[in-house]
Structures are given as C-alpha cells and as structure tokens.
Write a structure and sequence with these properties.
The complex is a heterodimer. Chain A has helices spanning 4-10, 16-25, 43-50, 80-83, 92-99, 142-148, 181-185, 222-227, 247-257, 266-269; strands spanning 33-36, 57-60, 64-65, 88-89, 107-111, 114-115, 121-122, 125-126, 134-135, 152-155, 192-196, 200-204, 211-216, 235-241. In chain A, β11 and β12 form a beta hairpin. Chain A has one domain (4-267): Glutaconate Coenzyme A-transferase. In chain A, strands 4-3-2-1-5-10-11-12-13-14 form a 10-stranded mixed sheet, with helices on both faces. Chain A has a two-stranded antiparallel sheet with strand order 6-7. Chain A has a two-stranded antiparallel ribbon with strand order 8-9. Chain A is α/β, with parallel strands linked by helices. In chain A, 25% of the residues lie in helices and 19% in strands. By secondary structure, chain B is of the alpha/beta class. Chain B has one domain: Glutaconate Coenzyme A-transferase (3-Layer(aba) Sandwich), CATH 3.40.1080. Chain B contains 12 helices and 13 strands. In chain B, the strands form 3 sheets. In chain B, strands 1, 2, 3, 4, 10, 11, 12 and 13 form an 8-stranded mixed sheet that branches. In chain B, α1 (10-17) crosses α2 and α2 (36-47) packs parallel to α3 (65-72). The radius of gyration of chain B is 20 Å and the shape is globular. The two termini of chain B are 20 Å apart. Classes of the chains: A alpha/beta, B alpha/beta.
Chain lengths: 277, 332
C-alpha cells in the first residue's frame, strides 16, 4: 500500500467520486440484468456498459428495458435518451412489482442520504419527519427494490452525517437489526451486498449482517474512514485495497458521462494542467 | 353512455373540471410527460377570477414541475408523494421550501413508495377498498396517512399474515381514486383514445384510477390510427372525459418521441425558488402568454433544440396521422 502522502497524490489523477462510481460498477457482471437507480447510482451501469461489460440489460423503474448506453448521460430514469434505444417498454408496476419482487435483477443500485450499520436506508427526511430540517426526494422505487431485490449496492458519500448509528427516517430495508431479522420478516429479496462510498467499500458480515470495512480505496486512509463513520466500524481480517480507475474508465466518465464535472467534481478538484480527458 | 368527441380548450377544461378541495393526480415521471401546462392554466384561471381554488390535494404521481407550480402558488393543502425532485437535474426547491420552512404555506405530506402508490391506484381502478403488498411491511412509510378526499389522518398500513396458510406477512394498503387525473400524451384522437410513447410509468394505472380523466395532448390524430393499430392505444377512450390539444404541453419536462426535458429551464426554475423569486417566475412563464401560439413564442427558439430529440424515431410511424389545425376546427 502507498503511504498517506502518495494516497493524496492520487487525488490529482481522479476524484473520490469517480473512484466511487468505478468501484460500484465492478459489481456488474457481463450478460447480467441491472436495476438502475436515481442520481449518482445512474452512472455505474452507464460506465460499465461503455467499458467492461457491454452486454448488460439495464432496467429503469419508469419501465424502460434494455436501453443501451450511448450519447450523453441520462438526466434521470425517464430521460428521452434512454427512450431512444430500448428493447422493450413496460410500466412502474412491472419493474417494481413483478421484476423486483421475483428476482429478475442480478444487481441493483440505490442512493442514500443516510445508511446505518445494517444497510437500512433513509432517503426521505433529515430531522423529525413531521417538521423536517431537510426534506429529501423520498422513496421513489427504492423501498420496493430494497424489499425485493436479491442484491443491491448502496452508494453514499462517506461522512458521519450519512453513515449513522440511527436513521432519522426508515425509507428502505437493509438487514433490519442484523442477524436473521430480515429473513424472519419475510422480505423476498436477499438485501444489500455492499455500501460503496467515496472512501471505501463496506460489506456485511455473513452472520451478524453488520457492515464492516473490507476494501479501502487507494486514495483514502483507514483513519479517515473510521473517523467519518457514525458507528464503531469493524475492519475485516482480509482488508483489501481497491484498484484505481483505469485511464479508459476516466476517459469515458469525463468525455461522455460528466463532461462539465458537475457530479464528480473532476474539473474543479484536479490540477488544471493535469486534465487530459 | 360514452360521449364522443371530447375536445375542449385548455381554459374550458380547467374551469369545467377543477374544483377546490379536489384530489388531483398528475401522471408522468419527474422529467417525462408531466401535464405542466394544465397546472399553469389552473393558476391563470384563478388569477383571472374564473376559478376559486385554495386547498387542492395532490394525489401522487411523483411531485415534479406541475405540482411545484401549484405548491409555490400556495394552493395545495396536502399531497401524497413518492418522489420529490428532478433526479440528476436537482432537488425540487419549491416543494422543499414549503415542507421545511412553510413557505408560502406548510403542505401536509404523506409518503408512499412508487410501488405502494401504484398498488393504491390498482386497487382504486378495481374499485377495491384495499390491496395486500409486500412493500410497506417494513419502515416508516406508514408514519402518516392522509385520507383523501378530506385529508384527515388515518391508520395507514395494516400488517396481517396470509390467511391462506403460507403465513407470509403483508401490508394492507388503501385503494385510491383521485377525483381528477391529468395525463400528458404525445397524441390522442378526438374521442380520447390515447397513445403513449416510451415507458408507460404509471400513466395507465392513474388513468384507470381517476374518477375523471383529462388528456392534454400535443397532437390530435385521426381515428384511422386507432383502427389500424388498436393494440397501441394505451388508454381507451372509455376512460377519458376530455381531450385538450396544446403543443409542448409537458414543457419543461420531456415527451418521449417529441422533445427532450429542458434541463436549463428546470435549473432556472429551481434557482428562482432558491432566490425567493418564485413570483417573478410566475409572471414570466405562467401569467405572461395570451394563447397557445404566444406560449410557443415564450419558449422561443429553445423549442427547436428540444425537438431534436434522440427519441424522435418513436414518433416516426405516426406522423402521417396527425391532424392539422384546420381539420381540428372541423371536428371541434
């Protein structure tokens, strides 16, 4: 592993958000069916299809199936760019009621405003629900995908206000209170398989279902990760380091998916002279 | 018996169908097929003194642009929401302000997931009082229920075990029949047979749940199209009470096959809310135009760019069935 100085040097080559998107995209296998979420979680499958896994089928909750990733990045799961080259159209009920509840997705991507150590998600309100400090978008299809999806990746920025001990509002189910509690509740899906942040990847302990640190991004330190986690984060005995984004992945991210740097911040945070998209 | 030829002008439709304390559902997804021009017309008719509305109940259908206009103008009392925002184009600051700061007034909110909301509409469309669901078994979605119409709080999901023996836990959720559903469509015939292009979202279910249904359509097509491709009618005329022709009626949301969402305009709108200039937005983009042509003038050359949509091949097979304005006058 590189020393702390070397790690921060890496952030002149790519941003931590780019690292998060690339790392999340690695959960996609070729020839698989991917449920695509809203916001940043739109990007991993767009990246994967343009780089490593061209033969995936993307499903969007609006009812778009098989839209291949070409042209500009979509603004949402209902954007016209996705409607231009789909293989089938259906509706919300089919995407969330039929496909999600019947194990039709190999992997799903969900965003979160808060996540707890059992992978339960809040995307509704910060503060009291009845008079919230911050009102967020709400469930959308996230509750349904989390209930039914066999395997889902949660994407969230790593800080104490987001990886929390207790959620302000329980929008979407992870492993409830750990152990077998999710199974006992009878939810059809297997639950979350990873929390991918801009600093690290957390995966659930097979027995307790508590999320532990299993992969450190090359640009972050263990201390940083622990300081920015709202619970006492356990570390896996087999801690690994994730691979940095490849030049091709960075090129696709910057030239096709986020040309302005609005989402990954690459234009602002990298040294001007080093930007060679 | 079904009345044929349901074409109405936009202002007539708003005056005829909109009532205070009514529950209204706008179909469409956050960036797609929102009947925004109908929301504009509610505000315009209210300002002209032709319509008295002060406490509308927005009965779901992802809170996007149209809902935000009504919330920002202070005529929404409560709403069912699944999703508030414009996805990657930003949060919905008008609705956020109303919930967080009570500006211009505090709106009561009931949260649903996309699936639980769709199931409520399915129950409504089947005339069922409730329906079982796996979504809603866990979590805080059932913190607050607002009984529509009337917006009184009620006990929301009720959890029961499958009485047929599997023992599986399900949530019972109430059916929903919005008083008025407004659909935006690329094309419909004068009787209301409606064609949607691209993903259906929940527009089909909402049209079946609504007690009354208005289709705001960018184009009116000849009925030959229905007779030639009856398979492609998403909403049959039986479920439609009025057809309102208006071009670019979803703007600034998109209409697959016809035009892209206008992201710069959505950001401008959000900016106006952040800077407390929402009233100026209304003056510029809601109260400013006289008629449909004037409305298109207001959007201006931007329309040209939006209609160069990658999704236009979806519309290609149908263009020859579009009725010209003159032919429309004959049918109307």
């Amino acid at each position: 592993m590189v020393g702390i100085g070397g790690k921060k040097e890496l952030l002149r080559k790519f941003t931590s958000t780019e690292m998060m998107i690339v790392e999340a995209s690695r959960f996609i296998r070729d020839n698989s069916t991917v449920f695509v979420g809203v916001g940043l979680s739109l990007l991993p499958s767009q990246l994967a299809q343009r780089t490593r896994t061209p033969n995936i089928t993307q499903v969007f909750e609006s009812g778009i199936i098989g839209a291949s990733s070409t042209g500009r990045a979509p603004w949402g799961v209902d954007d016209t760019v996705l409607q231009a080259n789909a293989t089938a159209f259906c509706d919300l009920m089919s995407a969330l009621g039929w496909m999600a509840m019947n194990n039709k997705f190999d992997v799903c991507f969900l965003g979160a405003a808060q996540v707890d150590k059992y992978g339960n998600i809040n995307s509704t309100t910060i503060g009291n629900y009845y008079s919230p400090r911050t009102r967020l978008p709400g469930s959308g299809g996230a509750h349904d995908v989390a209930t039914g999806g066999q395997k889902f990746v949660i994407m969230v920025r790593h800080d104490k206000s987001r990886l929390v001990e207790n959620l302000d509002y329980r929008t979407s189910p992870g492993f409830i209170v750990g152990g077998t509690t999710r199974k006992e509740l009878g939810l059809p899906g297997g639950g979350p398989c990873a929390i991918v942040t801009d600093l690290a990847t957390l995966t659930p302990d097979p027995n307790t279902k508590e999320f532990i640190l299993t992969k450190l991004h090359p640009c972050s330190t263990m201390q940083e990760v622990r300081e920015n986690t709202g619970w006492d984060l356990k570390v896996s005995d087999n801690l690994e380091e994730s691979l940095p984004p490849t030049p091709f992945e960075l090129e696709v991210l910057r030239k096709e998916l986020d040309t302005t740097g609005e989402f990954t911040g690459w234009r602002n945070s990298l040294l001007g002279s080093q930007i060679r998209p | 018996m079904e009345r044929l030829d349901k074409i109405l002008t936009l202002d007539d439709a708003v005056r005829k169908f909109v009532r205070d304390r009514q529950s209204i559902a706008f179909a469409g997804m956050p960036l797609m097929r929102k009947p925004v021009v109908f929301a504009r017309e509610i505000l315009r008719q209210k300002r002209a003194g032709n319509l008295k509305v002060s406490d509308l109940l927005m009965a779901g259908g992802t809170a996007s642009f149209g809902t935000a206009l009504l919330v920002g103008a202070g005529i929404v009392e409560s709403m069912i929401v699944q999703f508030i925002g414009f996805e990657r184009a930003g949060l919905n600051y008008v609705i956020k302000k109303s919930i967080e700061e009570g500006v211009p007034r505090k709106v009561q909110v009931e949260d649903e997931s996309n699936l639980t909301f769709n199931l409520r509409c399915l129950a409504g469309s089947l005339n069922l009082p409730f329906i079982p669901s796996i979504s809603g078994v866990w979590g805080d979605l059932n913190l607050r229920g607002l009984g529509f119409p009337g917006a009184h709080e009620y006990r929301k999901y009720i959890h029961v075990r499958d009485p047929f023996g599997t023992g599986r836990k399900v949530a019972l959720i109430q059916g929903l029949k919005p008083d008025l559903t407004v659909i935006q469509a690329p094309m419909a015939d004068k009787d209301g047979n409606t064609f949607l292009l691209g993903a259906v979202g929940h527009d089909d279910l909402l049209s079946r749940a609504g007690r009354q249904v208005i289709v705001v359509t960018d184009h009116v097509v000849s009925q030959d199209l229905c007779r030639k491709y009856p398979n492609l009618v998403t909403i049959p005329s039986i479920g439609v009470d009025a057809v309102v022709p208006w071009r670019l009626s979803a703007w600034p949301t998109g209409c697959p096959g016809l035009y892209d969402p206008d992201i710069p305009h959505i950001k401008l709108f959000n900016g106006s809310a952040l800077r407390n200039e929402f009233q100026d937005y209304l003056d510029w983009f809601v109260y400013s135009y006289k008629d449909e042509d004037d409305y298109l003038q207001m959007i201006g050359p931007e329309a040209e760019r939006l209609t160069q949509t990658a999704s236009s091949p979806l519309m290609e097979p149908f263009r020859k069935y579009l009725l010209k304005e003159k032919e429309l006058e004959v049918v109307a």
